[in-house]
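Supplementary Methods, section 5.1.

A reviewer requested that the exact input to the structure prediction be made available. We therefore reproduce it here, unchanged from the version used in the analyses.
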Amino acid sequence: MKKLFSLLIGILFVQQSFACAGDGYYYSYSLFTQELILSPRYTPFLLEYNAAYYSPVYLKADRNENVEEWQNYLGIGYEDAYYLVMKAPATDIQSLIKGNKIANDTLSFATPAFVKKNIQALKYISYSKYLEPYMIIQPSDNPDAWWRTVPEKSVTNLNYNKVTDVLIKSWNAETDKELKLRYGYQLVRFAHYNRKYETAIEYFTKYVENLNYKPVMYYYALNQKAGAERGLGNVAQANYEFIKVFTHTKNLQENVYNSIRLSSDYDLRELLSMAKSKEEQNDIYLLLGFQNFNNPLSTIEDIIKNTPDAVQAKVLMARAVKEISDAYIIEYYPDNGQKDKRIPFLATSNSRYNYYDEETLNKIPSYLQQAKALAKRMAESKQVKDQDYWNITLTYLYFLERNYSQAKSCLNKVKSQEQIYVNQKAKLNLLIEISEQPSITPEFETHLYSTYKELFSTQKYPTDMEDPDYANSTYGFIIDILSNRYFIQGDYAKSYLLENKVDQILNTDFQLMDEVEKFYHKKNKNNFEQFVYTNSLPSKYSEQAEKYLPVNKFNFDSYIAQVRGIKYFQQGDLPKALDYFTQAQKDSKDNQQNFTYIYNTTSDTYFGYNKIECFNCKEPQVVGVDYLKDFPFIKKEMNFKETTEILLALQKESTGNTEKASKANYLLGNYFYNTSTLGYFRGSLLNYTVADKHPYLEGKVYLKYNYEFDVRRFNPYDTSYPYDDFNFPEKYFVQALKLAKDNELKARILFALSKTEQGIHYQNLKKDYSYGYLGDEDILIQGRKYFKELAAYKNTSFYKEVKTNCKYFDHYITHFAEK
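The structure derived from this sequence is encoded token-by-token as follows.
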């Protein structure tokens, strides 16, 4: 069992995700391994959304069939043959031919005896290395040709007659069919690339076909001949020859299909009558199914009538299953936050939902039934030798239907010891066992952890280099199911902590905080609960993050108290916020480990005013600060707790009847305006979980946590902040104006009031003002109450400053002040 799940670990992080156009993003899980077809040559034709062909990064490249032929011909290892043919410098090959020693250890296998035995082959390789850089087709004279620039080298840089003469003489001199075939291939390709199409076809007949020798290189030459046929307009002949190349090679499939697609109006079905074998017919059917990717099932029927065990049928079935799977198991995050069309997979209520367009929703269930019926028929057919593929496919389709008993029955019939089958079977066993649980009991937790201990004990939050799409992996899907089950049964702490680090909890609510705190303090956690606890601890993303938050010094009590303090601060309850900040400081065993104090600092400029309107300009250019000397308790830099203490102190000072009380109200109004949506420091009290403030959460933006919508996603930008109500700072400015006696102070207060007046105007319009002013059409400049009052203070220096820097005020003075 341990060995089995060691293998399972390795495949759990293989996944794909894709985004669809429209208002939102779709992410699909890859739970079904398409490579079960066990045929690398057909892998490019598996289902891929973001590229023309399927090519996952974790797959090793197929061996080069040309190199394999050289390996067999020369009697050396593949790596040696690959280096000799593909990498070795031509100068080294020429030195070997001349009998000279070379300082290249990688060619140590080329002993004098080897060179003597293979001298003619080395001469061919040497000349082919000379030709290869120029083997680019002659650019078209058509200015609309697909290439925009002429390549640096092409066949036009070579003397056509001279090269052709060398190749023909070499062909005539050779007695070895393998080398004659290769010289023939060079002749056909060289003529084709020079657009001498008729000559290329003649060369193929004389120097290739007449050899009556058909290893892989024969079909490489045929590929060139087919290109020449197409150049002459013989589309049917060309496409049939391309099909022959497709069938008899393993490295040219993409190249060949691209060539066939150049004649886009050609119906591949017309080639069926030309096919000489069932294998060629099956490949034609495969390409038809690949083109008609919306429903390849009917094409599968055509293939299995020919050959019940045809790999081409498996390729198309893998594509169909992938498409069905992505319709059933998909996450959708709408940009506008609204629920959309959905079908449930994980549960019937209060669950994460899967989203798909209405047309697809109507088609997918019947599509699944068609695929299931076909897979069942194949799995039970006596004509089919490889029933494992169809049984494991059928297992997955039953799994999608949540018919777990039938899924397990089919899975038990899979006997293949191919490693990819062993892995897929283990993965499906795990998925079925977890998915079929109506609830997660302590007993099941114990079973889950003990049975799949290696999976849960070795997991860590991966870095971007390891797995950029971690949430959509198989492991992510398992965690989603468990999180969903916990959510449905009301175990909100485990539901949340399975999917989130605890230091992301700030953007949730007090109910969840209470649940998480209860879980953290729970004694005698079982092994799985301990996994949930450990997995939710803050992660060390980098040394930079470690400096901000030493993981091994995480103090939950201190942290949760700080979080509650921040929440109350955001809600405007400063006394309660200070109580929790004080408690957090008391609970902390290490005063250097102050999360909030470190990554959420403010400065005394938060109490200043905007000299100009410019959100992208540097702070000294924009913000001016007055009257700080009157309040020496305002620090140059301050953390959340200190900020709360200073605001409370200013509130106390603001209650008097003195000019100092006026200034205190003015500074309070400035602070709350500056941290509003229109202020220079807008969002700074909310964005404490991203970028430079909290490095290990950089770039994580999710939907707001909401019990009815989603288990785990939330948006750190979407926390309610009452100070976006511009009546809030306005009340401080109004009180400041009542108490002010100095005209310079009055001018400052009136200008500040004009800003809140503008904010209230936007509020009443219910328009988006998050990017600053909307424009003159939405601003009633001539009706600005506080501009009119400020105009009376033209003898103050602040009036002159405002008239210079504020175009709106200057426009008012110029056009409306006297009216």
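The beta strands are 25-28, 330-333, 342-344, 353-355, 602-603, 609-610, 623-624, 637-638. These observations are discussed further in the main text.
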